[in-house]
Amino acid sequence: MAAPCDTPSRILDAAERLFADRGIAATSLREITREAGVNLAAVNYHFGSKDGLIRELVRRRFSAVNEARLEALARLEAEYSPAPIPIEKLVRAFLEPAMRHFGEEDSAFPRFVGRLHLDPYPGMLQELRGAFLPVLERFLGPLQRVLPEVPRPVLFLRTFLMMGSLIHLLSNLRKHAEIFPACADALRDPDRILDELVGFAAAGLRHD
């Protein structure tokens, strides 16, 4: 049985793995508690319900990443003001926290996010939007300054394409390396992946 202070994290970690592998609807609370080594009452005590558990799962993962993104953006604004921030710097500030946080081969959260898009669970896509849209809006201002010729709706779409590339890449690094052996070494190098993704995304954001 998990220690009381560790119980919420144990439940969240187990739920993240099972949701990523099976989907939310197909995973019961009993399966989660069995995986976590806690009793069923612990879920209700700490999270109130399955929906509350999912909301906390999204919140805990995105809060750390978003905080790092905003801190990186604030540093760039202090460094470059009043000039526009170079686009590669903005893209790196947005992508790097997620790469560092979710870039391990066995990280389940990107697979969980990808599964939510393929197999939506009622209300959860709204939770995801609420978790990242405010930060994305914060980045759109500096992006618009450095790319004034790109209409805002188009820029918004291109940032979604950038995020889609990130989620797809992180969803299963080990499997990608097996499917594409020619780039397996690169896929096992987080710094290389980040550099390539920054260049790819920056080119996509600025293309005519």
Count of discrete alpha- or pi-helical segments spanning 4 or more residues? 11
**How far from one another are the termini?**
58 Å
- What is the residue-averaged pLDDT? 87
| CATH-defined superfamily | Tetracycline Repressor, domain 2
Strand content: under 5%
Unreliable stretches covering 5 or more consecutive residues: none
Overall number of strands: 0
Query: Helix-strand pattern, N to C?
Result: HHHHHHHHHHH
Helix share, percent: over 70%
- CATH domain topology: Tetracycline Repressor, domain 2
Please state the overall shape, judged from the principal axes of the Cα atoms.
globular
Describe this entry's structure for a reader.
It is built from eleven helices and no strands. With 208 residues, it is mostly helical. It has one domain: Orthogonal Bundle (Tetracycline Repressor, domain 2). Helix 4 packs parallel to helix 7, helix 6 packs across helix 8 and helix 8 packs antiparallel against helix 11. The chain starts with 6 loop residues before the first helix and ends with a helix. The mean pLDDT is 87.
